[in-house]
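Title: Prediction job returns without error message
Component: structure pipeline
Severity: low
Priority: P3
Assignee: unassigned

Description:
Job completed but the reporter wants confirmation the result is attached to the right record. Sequence as submitted:
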Amino acid sequence: MEFGLLGAVEVRDRGEPVEIGHVRQRSVLVALLMEEGRPVPVDRLLDRVWGERAPLRARETLYGYVSKLRKFLELDIERSPAGYHLTVDPAQVDLFRFRALVRDRDFDAALGLWRGQALDGLESPWFDALRESLHAERVAAELDRNDVALADGRHAALLPSLRQLAGERQLDERLAAQLMLALHRSGNDAEALRHYEIVRHRLADELGVDPSKPLQDMHQRILNGSVEERAAGPRQLPAPHPWFSGRTGELAALGSAGTVVITAIGGTGGIGKTALALHWAHRHLAEFPDGQLYVNLRGFDPSAGPTPPETVLREFLEALGEETIPAGLDARAARYRSVIAGRRMLVLLDNARSTEQVVPLLPGSDATVLVTSRLKLAGLVAAHGARSVSLDVLNPADAREFLVARLGAERVAAEPEVVADLVSWCGGLPLALSIVAARAAMEPDFPLAAFAGELREQPLDALDAGEIGTNLRTVFSWSVAALSEEAARAFGLLGTVGTADVSLAAAAALLDRTVARTRMVLRELENAHLVHQHVPGRYRMHDLVGLYAADLPADAGTRLADFYAATARAAALAQEPHKPLPEHESSHTLGFESNAAVMAWFDAEHACLVTEQRQALERGAFDVAWMIGRTLNNYHLRRGRTFDDVEAWLAALRAAEAMGDETKQATAHMCLGANYVELGQSALGHQHFERSLELFAGNDDPVAHGAAHRSIAWAAEFEGDLEKALEHSVLGLEKFRVAGSEVREAESLNEVGWRYACLGRYAEARTFCEEAMLLNTKLGHTEGIAATLDSLAHIARHDDRHADAITHYGEALALYRELDNSAELATVLEHLGDVHAEAGEDVRAREHRERALELYREQGRDAEAAALEARI
């Protein structure tokens, strides 16, 4: 499969075009492709595709587009709490091939991939900005190609295209200088000077500015006959890293050299900041004919403090040929700016500790500055207009290419699965890959599996090549040593979490700080690139950074576990206030004002809750393990996550057994019984039901007994025994009436009515369901009202009252959307589609059924999806 973005968006399979749907579906595909495998949060995806013009049901529409892309293109689009992410080989996407070819200086091949305007036909503010950015990349590649051709003496062949491009881009000064140089070398100084005057007047008339210094220099040199002269200057750049790989997006973000461009390149220790800066600098050497200055500012050097800017200025001035160096920081900075003014130079300030260390080293104009630091240097961005390019880890393909470059294609190809393990354990961190590669290169007879085994067992020990700078623990420690005491403590506590990420609220509970104070502490860790806020309000560490943090001494207490248990309890009670839950205290418990807020919290925290439940069980915090399993139940039902519910209840059952609480054990067995029946494991399900009844027999709680009858009734209906289902529904109703539980009574009235309807006894069914509707309405029980509307719609449909059926189903849909109950939403959509089909309304029937099918697939309800697809 090949994806074309450099023109109208297209997909080809073995050269044949593939249909990818209308413009919005294409937009979703491109928005995912552009991230090169990184997750895109749903809100960000909606903004990219629609901007501010998102339709009312944009989220559901988006889910549908993703589902269709998975189906028709067989794409690996995964969804996680961080969002959707699509993984494809970069070689399959023409834009990424273009960038790779530009990186390799094969400009003709790169530009040959363009078929017109990039992303032609896609419309939104994000796509407009992206299209403009891609156009700038194309222009930069064209100008780089011109420079190479001129350097190779191909000015005569280049001249016609330069004339054409200069006519199209009349304010492009770099292009004007290239045309002037080509004309001069062709013996046509008069036309070159005339073109300069045309550009000078146009700049003055349209922009009110004079030509840039480089263009003025070209004009003056042609007048002086000294175009080919190059002024001598310092050449201080270290050699580029020989095994540099990937970083096409970051290289593009750095852009081409220009006037007063200051770029801060940030990233954690070992992320490859210096390698990127040097690679870019050496690719652009021709743009800095007056020299390159370099200094290691030693911002995080364990053996010495940061290099004072006054010392750096002395070294720079001496390199620039100054024989007398003034005393004092301000005087040296002024002399430095004066000497460098008018020169086309690069200044690379490596490993900076702070904005204050960097500012005196900034030239006044003309030069290009690259700054690398483990910190974000926000002051440099805010006060001096720097562009910030933060580095993430290498993607798996680029990480593998790094190992190929370092160890050779043959050795890598010999153990492909082992190489995949190495890449995975190194987490795309260039320093980790370098250490593994260095150790493997020193032991060429060792199989790579030996190093993979070490990484698997002791990752941080394996990432030690025996010298300072090649020991990952040491490199990370330099960053931690620069933190404040509070941030260093927070870093150690975050190492105890054990989950992929953590929310701001959870971090506040862990640190026992206010949310506002926690945000400031996390900002310091973000600034040091030790944590990353990958979506608003959620923070994560690189796996290896997390392992280092986990090794640090830290006493987390039970604060985080108490936060999750207490907040999950509050969330469950907000959904089902009629279901009592034992108290669980936390000073950081969150509150919820709506069902939507509850479901959003469970969506975001599900993975963390599951991990916390497992850890609580392991350390003997059985009350926490039980509470989390119990509170996840309703969420799992609403999302159709039956497998997840089984895992949560199994853990909760172990906790209840450890506590010796038979009522909790009975509840767990009851819910597990229903889940196993739904999953097609009826024998196991009934074993749990029988154990549940045995345990409930030991108490006289009618609500507990009623709940057991409800579960058995549901299982009997699922298995097709409708008479048994009705019998247990009636028994459950009687128990709830005895207990005086009106909410449970209302729910059971509907269930009795539904089972009468399933048996074809619609008059009796309607009586029970209408009584259920009255009681649910009196109680304000939204979920009960929605379920009863579904039953009444079913009854109306079989009484040939199609209009009533459609009305009831429509009202049920609205309530399930309000409740964010996607499991029931899918079922009602299917039923509504059936009613429209019976009425001959085929288009609407198909719309509802296809949406139900998408939801079934997203929820992993394969049996329902297969049955519905066969009917469609």
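Comment from assignee: result matches the submitted record. DSSP finds 42 helices and 13 strands in the chain.
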